[in-house]
Write a structure and sequence with these properties.
With 218 residues, this protein is an alpha+beta fold. It contains 5 helices and 12 strands. About 3% of the residues have low confidence.
């Protein structure tokens, strides 16, 4: 039953997110459109969120669910840091977020929380990594690329099957992420209006692309 619920919701998320692993870091990209059914509600929504100085996440799912998820994971990581007096690793953050999502969807409610996440970050040793957390709560490290369960996923993964090359540099990954979002917005009606791309390297987290997609009428 749960698999059916996730299957019915995963391509109704109406968004496009992508994470790409590079030889010198990680790149995360997303579009800006939010919808309610067939209506475009917002054309400038930032779907990539900086959790703290070393973690960034991009979400797919209901707006209320993802807003709450982002606040909870930021607070929980801060509490963990204060208790242990050490900074959580990217792996620890991903598994904590997976546990939160796993617990949420198994709490009896009339409206289950369905959120998919790509989370990237940099550990204290300078290693950047990317994790995908499926809507059921499983957290898995990404070795090449992923689009989680966004509605643009089929178009993004199809594009990356031929365009992705192992050991590409972050600079190349940024351009590839832009092309991924452009490709999905051409076919996925739930995605569009803008592109944001973040890079995650030992130099830190940077918002490297912020572009509006404007319709041209001829």
């Amino acid at each position: 039953m749960m698999n059916n619920d996730i299957g019915q919701n995963m391509l109704k998320s109406n968004t496009s997110i992508v994470g790409i692993v590079c030889k010198d870091g990680v790149v995360i990209g997303a579009d800006r459109r939010t919808t309610a059914g067939s209506i475009v509600m917002n054309k400038s929504k930032q779907k990539i969120r900086k959790i703290n100085d070393y973690l960034v996440a991009s979400y797919t799912g209901g707006v209320a669910d993802l807003e709450l998820t982002n606040k909870v994971i930021a607070a929980e990581l801060r509490l963990k840091e204060l208790k242990t007096k050490s900074r959580p690793t990217v792996e620890e953050a991903a598994n904590l977020l997976g546990m939160i999502i796993y617990r949420n969807i198994r709490t009896p409610t009339m409206i289950p929380s369905i959120v998919g996440t790509l989370i990237g970050g940099i550990d204290e040793n300078g290693k950047a990594s990317l994790y995908t957390i499926e809507p059921a709560g499983a957290a898995m490290e990404v070795e090449d690329y992923d689009a989680n369960f966004s509605s643009g996923m089929p178009y993004i993964l199809g594009f990356l099957e031929r365009a992705y090359k192992k050991d590409l540099a972050v600079k190349e990954g940024i351009e590839l992420a832009k092309e991924c979002i452009k490709s999905s917005t051409q076919r996925d009606v739930g995605s569009g209006n803008g592109i944001d791309v973040y890079s995650i390297t030992k130099e830190g987290i940077k918002h490297v692309v912020s572009e509006e997609i404007v319709a041209e009428y001829k």
